[in-house]
Specification:
The complex is a heterodimer of chains A (about 290) and B (about 325). By secondary structure, chain A is of the alpha/beta class. Chain A is built from twelve helices and twelve strands. Chain A has a ten-stranded mixed β-sheet, with helices on both faces. A two-stranded antiparallel ribbon of chain A has the order 10-11. In chain B, α3 packs antiparallel against α4, α3 packs antiparallel against α6 and α6 packs antiparallel against α7. The chains are: A alpha/beta (about 290), B mainly alpha (about 325).
Chain lengths: ~290, ~325
């Protein structure tokens, strides 16, 4: 799905982080040789159409020189606008930069990215966070895949492997075994995830064996708290892009869905792969068994 | 580059708030320990705060000057690139005797001007560590993009290509040695501009300039409440945080403008300047219809009309 994307939709609010990710967007346009659509959804009660149009025209001005570039302006609610636009289009990669850091607590903040990840059945690129003034990292040759739980399915692993094979990159399968002690037996009972490093290593080997693609695969396992171990695993593996399933990317909270705090701290490219691919995978498996 | 009159505090706040919060807690502690718990020994009333602040200001001024020097030099280099591009395009268009009747071939002089436009875009992308291949593909075609994809330094490769085209023009009798020499001088100017930009990009401020003022600002901010608590009592945190904020803001500001070639709000407006170069050079080629992006008889056709880059939210990129 990722390497089949023929259109990149870059949803922008003209924030600092939108500007900071421009080099990454340009890199993706070049890698996928895709059409670029710059999408801005504005609130007609606050901004005039002409004003929004002038801003959109000047934002990422160099994209005018791209072979296929379109600027789309939609009035209304941001989440609804992006959803309506993306649902009509097949084979797109939606790029959503994170919000600018404000330095102030935002207890009532509802994550738009998390809502879009939940609602849309397209791959979504984003970053955990970006500091104002920093430039965004660009994905290159080392593709990490977060394999959290067997119940998440293998579609995101398969897509990452396809992409790695296509770009000649190395696939890094990453898993962190939860700390287990006498007081926390509930989670292991409810989950099918391996409970020891050796079991996890064997499980990742099985996963790698099912991929059957022409790319280098490396496995990285650690034990401990995910929020502490994952950054170390990423550093150790040298991954510059992390593919995650929709299930692990979004967490429910009492004010609505939010980005998993584990990934929110990452400063590398994140690609969230949707559930719908699981249905595609099921269909493929059914077709194979029928054949 | 910031063109709006006011710089909202939220631009500085994300980088300053942690330091200020810690200082506020420390200031409050000092004020309570001195005024409420009556531990008089905590006061350093004899500390010469004013001379210390003056010395610190000199350090900060040195660094701010150095950072501003880098920022201004970057802007001057891009201004020089605009002028050199116009001069070079003028030379290409008036000095090359390439009168072709073939409709499917654009004159060599126009090809050279397109290379010059591409150079400006490629230099911007090179400095921002961004790929310029999608733009090259549109401006020069697929073949040129494939050839240039092999190079790590695309702007230098473009100058080399221009040199090659000029040699071809000379061998075909479109250009004599004298005119070739004149054009070559301007190509050297382009190479010098690129080299100077790379120097700014790849050489950070001397670490002593960067590190020492930051350490001294921190030391001053920690000592300040101890020096003023005897006079101000419980009002110490307000005065101390305000004075600390001034120094921290000056420290951050000079750090932000010291790197003028990143994709930030403080950098040289390379997108706007490369667009200006493109517009000027296309006008020189008589592609004057901006609404549609090309003239009826123009051989260079564009999908989108080209227009000036306007400030986005008070910032020009």
């Amino acid at each position: 799905m990722l390497q089949r994307a023929t259109e990149i939709v870059f949803a922008t609010d003209f924030s600092d982080s939108s500007h900071a990710v421009i080099p990454t967007v340009a890199q993706w346009v070049h890698t996928l040789d895709a059409k670029l659509t710059l999408l801005h959804v504005y609130n007609p009660e606050k901004t005039y159409y002409r004003e929004a149009q002038a801003l959109l025209k000047s934002f990422f001005a160099e994209a005018d020189n791209y072979k296929h570039c379109e600027r789309v302006l939609i009035a209304g609610d941001v989440c609804e606008g992006i959803t309506a636009y993306c649902e009509r289009r097949p084979n797109i990669l939606l790029m959503l930069p994170p919000s600018d850091l404000t330095g102030l607590p935002r207890p009532w903040h509802r994550s738009m990215r998390a809502r879009l990840m939940q609602r849309l059945s397209v791959p979504i690129w984003t970053l955990g966070r970006i500091n104002v003034g920093d430039s965004a990292p660009s994905a290159d040759r080392h593709i990490g895949v977060w394999v959290g739980d067997p119940e998440e399915g293998m579609s995101h692993v398969r897509q990452a492997a396809d992409y790695a094979a296509e770009t000649g990159g190395t696939l890094h399968l990453l898993h962190v075994v939860d700390e287990i002690n006498e007081g926390s037996m509930l989670k292991p009972l409810l989950s099918n995830a391996p409970m020891g490093e050796e079991t996890a290593d064997a499980w990742l080997r099985d996963v790698a064996a099912t991929i059957d693609l022409d790319c280098n695969v490396e496995m990285h396992v650690a034990q401990g708290r995910v929020s502490r171990e994952l950054p170390q695993l990423l550093r150790r593996s040298g991954a510059d892009m992390l593919v995650i399933s929709q299930q692990s990317a979004v967490h429910p909270s009492w004010i609505g869905p939010e980005i998993n705090p584990v990934f929110r701290k990452c400063t590398l490219s994140l690609i969230c792969v949707p559930y719908s691919s699981r249905f595609e995978e099921l269909q493929r498996q059914m077709a194979e068994s029928a054949a | 580059m910031i063109v709006r009159d006011r710089l909202p505090l939220k631009r500085i706040w994300p980088r300053a708030w942690k330091r200020l919060l810690v200082l506020l807690v420390f200031d409050c502690t000092v004020a309570v320990v001195y005024s409420v718990l009556h531990h008089r020994w905590i006061s350093l009333n004899g500390l010469p705060v004013a001379p210390l602040a003056s010395a610190l200001t000199i350090f900060l001024a040195f660094r701010t000057n150095a950072a501003y020097g880098r920022w201004w030099e970057a802007r001057q280099l891009w201004g020089q690139l605009v002028n050199s591009s116009r001069a070079l395009a003028l030379q290409f268009l008036t000095m090359l005797d390439d009168e072709t009747e073939e409709q499917d071939r654009s004159p060599l002089r126009n090809t050279l001007v397109l290379h010059q436009i591409t150079f400006a875009h490629a230099l911007r992308c090179h400095l921002r560590r961004q790929t310029s291949l999608p733009e090259i593909r549109t401006l020069l075609g697929e073949e040129a993009a494939e050839e240039l994809a092999a190079y790590k330094n695309v702007p230098a490769a473009l100058v080399l290509r221009m040199g090659g085209l000029l040699r071809q023009a000379r061998s075909e009798g479109m250009l004599d040695s004298f005119r070739w020499g004149m054009i070559n001088e301007n190509l050297t100017v382009l190479t010098n501009i690129q080299g100077a930009c790379e120097r700014i990009k790849n050489t950070p401020l001397p670490r002593q300039f960067d590190f020492l003022p930051s350490v001294l600002v921190s030391a001053f901010c920690w000592l300040l409440p101890l020096a003023i608590v005897e006079d101000l009592g419980l009002m110490t945190p307000i005065a101390s945080v305000l004075i600390s904020f001034t120094f921290i803001a000056a420290d951050l500001m000079s750090r932000e403008i010291s790197n003028p070639f990143d994709s930030t709000i403080h950098d040289t407006p390379m997108t706007a300047l490369s667009r200006t170069i493109e517009l000027n050079l296309r006008e020189q080629m008589r592609e004057t219809d901006r609404e549609r992006g090309w003239r009826e008889d123009s051989r260079q056709r564009r999908l989108h009309p080209v227009s000036d880059v306007m400030p986005v939210d008070g910032f020009v990129f």
